[in-house]
Design a protein that fits this description.
The structure holds 2 protein chains of 2 kinds. By secondary structure, chain A is an alpha+beta fold. Chain A has a 4-stranded mixed beta sheet. Chain A has a two-stranded antiparallel ribbon with strand order 2-7. In chain A, strands 6-10 form a two-stranded antiparallel ribbon. In chain A, about 55% of the residues lie in helices and about 10% in strands. Chain A has a domain at about 45-245 and about 300-375: Serine Threonine Protein Phosphatase 5, Tetratricopeptide repeat, CATH 1.25.40. In chain A, helix 4 (about 100-125) packs antiparallel against helix 5, helix 5 runs antiparallel to helix 6 (about 175-190) and helix 5 runs parallel beside helix 7. Chain B is mainly beta. Chain B has 2 domains: about 20-105, Immunoglobulin-like; about 150-755 and about 790-820 and about 890-970, TonB-dependent receptor, beta-barrel domain (Maltoporin, Chain A), CATH 2.40.170.20. The chains are: A alpha+beta, B mainly beta. At the A-B interface, helix 1, strand 1, helix 2, helix 4 and helix 15 of A face strand 27, strand 28, strand 29, strand 30 and strand 33 of B. Strand 1 of chain A pairs antiparallel with strand 33 (about 615-620) of chain B.
Chain lengths: ~400, ~950
């Protein structure tokens, strides 16, 4: 009898044990996430492409705004009532700690952009496509945005205060020049996967800009000459009410923490017509000082200007004035100016073009590159001229000094 | 609705009819050793499942149908809380029986039945593991409690209760022993009447740092007792996720009534009180102190609680209703809770018991913005010298954040004893809740620039969980004198949680506040998860001569959450106890001495998707919806394994003193460490989990209770709890240390306790060649600053009944070796709101000072002088750039509960009113009467990032916990 009772205890246990595995596996499927390999189909390419673009749109204005803050175009002051980010102050002063959370976030997202783009290329090679256009879309997007990610890294981040460059996949540090070559090769590869003339011109302008960063004005001129022309639609990073432009939330209508250098107000005082491209408003600090903040991007969803035919014109004009190519720099500059109904210049020097760039590319993230390539640094020599590759990378990457 | 009522009525009538035939009476008196009557003691005749409670004279009486008396010998047992129960054998002949009892005080509470495992209960005198129990029902007799956290805080050795803010319904967390292993959120699993409860802190649309605790739905008045198994040694049979202990809450049930003349007693309790600001900001610390203090209000509390309880031999019932309104100490902090409960226990046959426990709650919580947010009351007043820089004072109150929570908790338990020694038990439980949050910034005001035309957020979370438990137990004897109880069973759990959220903006009116009036949707999302876990276990408990006790057990666990290569894990346990007092060599003054040792293993499960290498989700923006990384997993992942050994003793001396001591040591192995990939890999959305970590913790727990005075009119009981715990991370498998908290002040890294403050410190001042201060000198390396969790904690309890009917109850808690990061002050210093900081800034010639922002009459010091250097060193030590400057000692002593009450029951009797009102008591209770601490901030018990974050003990504009005063009245009919 005892044995029977004991069996009563043990047998259900054995039975239940066998059923456990089935029980725990019988759950509802995930609906808000998807496993990696399920995206390896032609039908999902559009979804993955938009993911790359979405990360690009996040990175583009965030990185540009912080680069502008580090440059002499914008600055941070806690005198502005709504300013409270110590990390912005560090960037503004070029005294950036490796633990700066703002920099680390941007660097992390830039890493994602690079990975998403490269991952798309790898995925495109794994998928069997029925429609070649779908494969071209994947390869164009992967190459083009992969190039942009590398360009951003090479022009904005540094290993030391004046040693720009970047890293891929926790590898060794890649100096900017080499990283830019990688970007250039990818832009060139992207050209093979689009037949749209306007898109090709955008890629050429981006190529020119990459050569600009390398101070290779001859090649820059070659591609700028094939770049965007008057009437071309701007190349923008698209934002929305859900995914906001960074300038709005940190340096604009949403919340003013980062303000514009006073010289932009001076530009307006000198020529009120400049308000067509230099859009600013004022706020008063606790000390009663007046500060200026950008209104170029007035809404959360305002697109961010990445490349325009006007920038292409100014690049080409500068190449001419630097003797890298021949052409009429004055007419190129005046085409830009007259598009805003500004007075045409009668003559133009290299310095004039740089001032034009300062005004035209207001809040487009290029000022840092310009200051570095023209060696017109506004802070002490010991300060960071790039945002530092953060400690999160240094700690996890055995190839870097800690 | 009609049917259940009819059934209830029938059961009552049927049971009374049975007794209506010819009957004989069993009666007597129950007294203590001094001859004093014990009121409310139970006298039970187990054979017939009947009995009675004693009346005001200590007398009991009940009847038995004459036809049941066949000359048999049956056991009659008298029991009373805090007294040792006594049984006598009586012979039922059909004649009236008189049997008196004299009960002896039970200082150690040896006879208390305590839970020692998933399917094991035993009396405390033979338990092989450290068992802790809170008699909530007793505490409620002398004090007022609003939540489970208030009932538990400081009452159990080895368990710390950490609140995160003074919001009504605020989140809180347990810290059990050394805090468990490296994984999970450190929280024990919590069961209420057999139902595994949702213990989430729900944040929804954040109001800065605080979430609301789902457990704030629980009505503390319904709770009868709380038992806690503190670590794997005891909780091993609960399997994975039991490593942080198990909390078992039992709600009240029906009682047998005195003399059976009245099948129901009704209790009514009324609380009236208020919450008030305990810590007042001083102008010496913050220039804007007045602005901050002005935001506080005295928040009223009113609570009505009515319960009905009764029972017959076939049915016991308990029903209650509560409405509690509590306003917090800021204008938009409040809670409004209504609960109903019905608990039934039916005995359809002698062999079958069925219990039902049901509870429905409607709760409404108003949450103020605070902590790390620009819409906060404190952020707008205390962070900067110029208040209301982000939101105007009159607009702060316009931000509404209200959550409405409906929750049903129910369980059905059946216990069947088909044959002698065999027991089959099963429980089905449901916890189902809907948490609906609406937050609204009205159209009109400018909220920090980011919200200028109104904003509405809606968050809805639905949580559904099922608990299924069953076990079979068999009691038998081997080798003639070894009693064995063999148990086997299974335990299964399923949880489905989903949430949706949406934000609308650009309202063109303040008159319509629904989403339909928003011109644009600016965020939206949806989440879903369904997980299951289950385990089977077997346990075998041996006892020999009531002196030696041994239990062996094993549990095998299965979970959806475990990676594909680790479908199951096994956890063993073993425990042993010996009663030394049964030997003759011990002096008679030692009434009880038990040595015990236990070993057990348990663990923490990985996250439910941690075994999936890469997951992508959708993110929307200007391009539409695209694929972005969501999480990075590891398909080799397994649960953490935590091994615990505890040894200790329990003693009762001189019939006055009880001592419980336990030493524990835990080793966590295979802990899941999230290796953070280098950002250049792009795979950083989450860290990647690996089973490479290890940590150890140890400590001791002491509980001493002493009753120096015990008489009819005076009774003094003193209690002391003293705990020590320390822990150390011993391995991270080469992963880089984790840093968290504002300015990365806390860490998990090898060689340090987890969550330790580990950051840079000012070590002096830097000067230029002219001797002018230029900056503070930061330490070159991070420095171990101290613990964010108190290492030593304890409490002192005083329960003094005097002049027979007065009771003074006091309870104080302390914590030592504890630090807090006063980021509030650091931030305020940086933004010119700290006069002391401004003073040195001026003295060193670094900044001019506006009138009123620093002490007057100051003169700038001359660089190079000793005074200048001293000031520079002092200023360097206040530099907010080095967080250690603001990590302060936070050792504390809190006078937590003080209550004075008077029991009018004797007076009622004297005036012969007791036939109308059975009992009547009233009291005045104060919670958080005083807080004594070195910490210069508002409160030592808060955390700016809520109750589930890794970061802890950080004060950043966080709302202090209030002082609460309650006047309560308790009436029994």
């Amino acid at each position: 009898m005892k044995k029977i009772k004991y069996l009563l205890v043990v047998l259900p246990l054995v039975f239940v044990g066998l059923a456990c595995t089935d029980y725990i596996k019988d759950v509802d499927p995930l609906i808000n996430v998807v496993e990696n390999d399920r995206l390896d189909t032609e039908a999902q390419v559009g979804f993955v492409v938009k993911g790359v673009q979405q990360r690009f749109s996040i990175v583009a204005s965030q990185l540009a705004c912080q680069a502008d803050l580090l440059s002499d175009q914008m600055f941070y002051t806690s005198d502005v009532p709504s300013a409270s980010f110590p990390s912005f102050e560090e960037i503004d002063k070029g005294a950036i700690t490796l633990d700066n959370a703002t920099v680390a976030t941007t660097y992390r997202q830039l890493g994602e952009l690079r990975f998403f783009a490269d991952d798309l290329l790898a995925r495109a090679n794994r998928i069997s496509f029925a429609t070649p256009a779908n494969k071209d879309l994947a390869l164009f997007t992967g190459n083009f945005y992969g190039a942009i990610a590398r360009f951003y890294s090479a022009t904005t981040f540094g290993l030391t205060e004046n040693q720009p460059g970047g890293i891929i996949d926790a590898g060794p540090f890649i100096p900017a020049s080499q990283f830019l070559d990688d970007a250039i090769n990818r832009y060139k590869a992207a050209l093979n996967y689009t037949t749209d003339a306007a898109t090709k011109r955008i890629v050429n302008s981006m190529l020119a800009k990459a050569y600009f960063a390398k101070k290779d004005y001859a090649n820059a001129a070659t591609f700028a000459a094939q770049g965007m022309v008057s009437g071309d639609k701007d190349f923008q990073a698209l934002n929305s009410d859900v995914s906001n432009i960074y300038y709005w939330g940190f340096a604009g209508a949403g919340r003013v923490q980062i303000v514009v250098a006073d010289r932009f107000n001076d530009y307006l005082k000198a020529d009120p017509k400049e308000s067509a491209r230099i859009k600013i408003s004022t706020t008063t600090g606790t000390s009663k000082r007046v500060y200026y903040w950008q209104t170029k991007y007035p809404e959360k969803g305002t697109p961010f200007q990445v490349m325009t035919w006007k920038e292409n014109n100014l690049m080409l004009a500068e190449c001419i004035l630097r003797g890298a190519t021949s052409g009429n720099a004055l007419s190129l500059v005046n085409a830009v100016r007259t598009s805003y109904a500004l007075n045409a210049l009668t003559a133009v020097t290299l310095n004039d073009v740089l001032v034009e760039r300062d005004k035209e590319l207001f809040c487009q993230g290029t000022r840092l590159m310009d200051q570095n390539r023209t060696d017109t640094w506004h802070l002490a020599a010991t300060t960071w001229r790039y945002m530092p590759i953060p400690r999160t990378e240094r700690n996890a990457n055995p190839n870097l000094p800690k | 609705m009609k049917k259940p009522l009819q059934i209830l009525l029938f059961l009552f009538l049927a049971s009374n009819l049975i007794w209506a035939q010819g009957a004989f009476k069993v009666s007597g008196k129950v007294t203590d050793t001094n001859g004093e009557a014990l009121i409310g003691a139970s006298v039970v005749l187990k054979a017939f499942n009947t009995g009675a409670a004693t009346d005001l004279d200590g007398k009991y009486s009940f009847e038995i149908p004459s036809n049941l008396a066949r000359g048999q010998r049956v056991e009659l047992t008298a029991s009373f809380v805090n007294y040792k129960k006594k049984s006598v054998m009586i012979t039922l002949t059909g004649s009236n029986i008189t049997q008196d009892f004299e009960l002896e005080e039970d200082v150690f509470q040896s006879d208390e039945v305590v839970v020692t495992g998933i399917a094991s209960k035993t009396s405390k005198s033979v338990a092989e593991v450290s068992v802790s129990r809170i008699s909530a029902a007793d505490l409620q007799m002398v004090n007022a409690y609003s939540s489970l956290s208030q009932l538990v805080a400081g009452k159990i050795s080895g368990v710390q209760m950490q609140t995160s803010s003074g919001n009504v319904g605020s989140g809180w967390r347990f810290w059990v022993r050394g805090g468990g292993g490296l994984n999970g959120d450190g929280q024990p699993i919590i069961y209420l009447d057999g139902v595994r409860l949702d213990n989430a802190e729900v944040i929804g649309y954040g109001a800065g740092g605080q979430g609301n605790s789902i457990l704030s739905n629980l009505n503390a008045n319904d709770i009868d007792k709380i038992e806690i198994l503190k670590g794997p040694a005891a909780a091993s049979s609960y399997g994975a996720n039991g490593s942080n202990g198990v909390v078992l809450i039992t709600t009240k049930s029906g009682k047998l009534m005195a003399g059976m003349q009245q099948p129901v007693t009704i209790d009514y309790r009324f609380n009236y009180g208020y919450n008030e600001q305990l810590y007042k900001y001083s102008k010496d610390d913050f220039l804007s102190a007045d602005d901050a203090n002005r935001q506080f209000v005295k928040g009223p509390i009113r609570e009505h609680y009515v319960s009905a309880a009764g029972g017959t031999s076939t049915l016991k019932y308990f029903a209650s209703f509560e409405n509690r309104y509590e306003h917090g100490i800021l204008p938009t902090s409040f809670g409004d809770r209504s609960t109903v409960r019905l608990n039934l226990t039916a005995f359809p046959t002698e062999k079958l018991t069925i219990k039902g426990s049901t509870n429905y709650v409607m709760n409404k919580l108003g949450r103020p913005s605070n902590d790390n947010i620009i819409y906060g009351y404190l952020g707008n007043t205390i962070f900067r010298a110029a208040s209301f820089g982000w939101v105007k004072e009159e607009d702060l109150i316009k931000i509404k954040d209200v959550s409405k929570i409906n929750q049903f908790i129910g369980s059905l338990t059946a216990s069947y004893k088909p044959i002698e020694g065999l027991e089959l038990n099963g429980t089905l439980g449901i916890d189902n809740s809907d948490y609906y949050q609406e937050r609204f910034f009205p159209f009109g005001p400018n909220f920090g620039g980011l919200i200028q035309t109104g904003q509405k957020n809606i968050y809805d979370r639905k949580n559904k969980q099922f608990t299924y438990d069953f076990n079979v137990a068999y009691n038998y004897t081997i080798f003639d004198d070894i009693n064995v109880r063999s148990t086997a069973g299974g335990q299964f759990f399923e949880r489905t949680v989903s949430s949706t959220n949406v934000t609308g903006e650009k309202f063109n009116t303040d008159l319509i506040v629904t989403l339909g009036a928003a011109s644009t949707i600016t965020s939206y999302g949806e989440s879903f998860s369904n997980i299951k876990d289950g385990g089977i276990f077997t346990e075998h408990a041996f006892s020999y001569q009531d002196q030696y006790f041994l239990t062996l057990g094993i549990r095998r666990d299965y979970a959806t959450a475990i990676g594909k290569n680790a479908p199951a894990i096994t956890y063993p346990k073993a425990s042993f106890a010996i009663r030394l007092d049964k030997y003759d060599f011990l002096p008679s003054e030692i009434n009880l001495l038990k040595l015990r040792a236990a070993y057990g293993e348990s663990g923490q499960l990985p996250g439910s998707t941690a075994g999936i290498p890469l997951l992508w989700s959708a993110e929307t923006g200007g391009y539409g919806a695209g694929a972005v990384l969501n999480s990075i997993g590891n398909d080799q992942i397994q649960p953490e394994r935590i091994k615990e050994i505890e040894i200790g003793f329990d003693a009762e001396l001189f019939k006055d003193v009880s001592i419980e001591f336990t030493y524990f040591r835990q080793n966590a192995l295979n802990s899941i460490v999230g290796k953070v990939n280098a950002p250049s890999t792009g795979r950083t959305i989450t860290s990647q989990p690996y089973n490479v970590g290890a940590m150890e913790n140890q400590g001791f727990e002491t509980y001493i209770q002493y009753t120096p005075i015990r008489s009819a009119n005076y009774n003094l009981q003193l209690g002391l709890i003293w705990n020590f715990q320390e822990n150390k991370v011993t391995d991270l498998g080469g992963a880089q240390p984790l840093y968290f908290g504002f300015n990365s002040v806390q860490t998990i890294q090898v060689g340090l306790p987890k969550y330790q403050f580990y950051t840079f410190k000012s070590v002096g001042a830097n000067y230029n060649t002219a001797g002018v201060y230029t900056s503070s000198k930061a330490s070159t390396e991070r420095i171990n600053i101290g613990s964010s969790v108190p290492k030593n904690t304890g409490s002192f309890t005083l329960n003094f009944r005097f002049l027979k009917d007065f009771t003074l109850y006091g309870f104080a808690e302390w914590g030592l070796n504890y630090k807090i990061y006063n980021y509030t002050k650091s931030f305020a210093a940086r933004f010119g709101n700290v006069p002391e900081y401004n003073k040195y800034n001026f003295l060193l010639g670094l900044a001019e000072i506006a009138p009123g922002t620093a002490p007057t009459g100051l003169t700038k010091l001359t660089p190079g002088t000793d005074e200048y250097k001293a000031a520079a060193e002092k200023f360097a030590s206040m530099d907010w750039r080095n967080p250690a400057s603001y990590i302060e000692d936070a050792d504390y002593l809190i006078i937590r509960e003080v209550s004075l009450s008077y029991d009018f029951t004797s007076l009622l009797r004297d005036f012969e009113l007791n036939s109308y009102v059975k009992n009547f008591a009233m009291g005045l209770s104060v919670r958080n009467l005083a807080r004594i601490t070195k910490y210069s901030g508002a409160d030592v018990e808060i955390n700016a990032t809520g109750a589930r974050s890794d970061a802890r003990a950080i004060d950043f504009g966080t709302l202090q916990t209030p002082r609460t005063v309650n006047l309560w009245v308790r009436l029994g009919f």
